[in-house]
Design goal:
By secondary structure, the chain is an alpha+beta fold. Helix content is about 35%, strand content about 15%.
Length: about 90
């Protein structure tokens, strides 16, 4: 049996600048420092995102449009099901 142990650093480091990490990205869970994080407003509290996730995050208007489109499609399916199952 080997007496070698795997290397475990004392601190976790940022994936971008290799300084000590302050926390994880809210989307991809990558370790990031305070200088490399971007704060975005969440529903309840601010979210810290890494640079890549902040660039790829959808715009608020696009998210609202997607939710409204999903609601319209859902209501159209309900209406079609109601019309097909109702007695003529």
């Amino acid at each position: 049996m080997s007496s070698l142990a795997p290397f475990r650093p004392d601190e976790d480091y940022c994936v971008y600048c290799h300084r000590p990490a302050a926390g994880r990205c809210a989307v991809c869970h990558a370790l990031i420092c305070a200088d490399c994080s971007v704060l975005k407003n969440g529903l309840i509290r601010p979210l810290a995102l890494c640079k890549k996730c902040a660039e790829n995050s959808p715009r608020p208007r696009r998210v609202l449009l997607m939710w409204l489109l999903a609601a319209v499609i859902f209501l159209a399916i309900l209406l079609a099901a109601f019309l097909l199952l109702s007695p003529a």
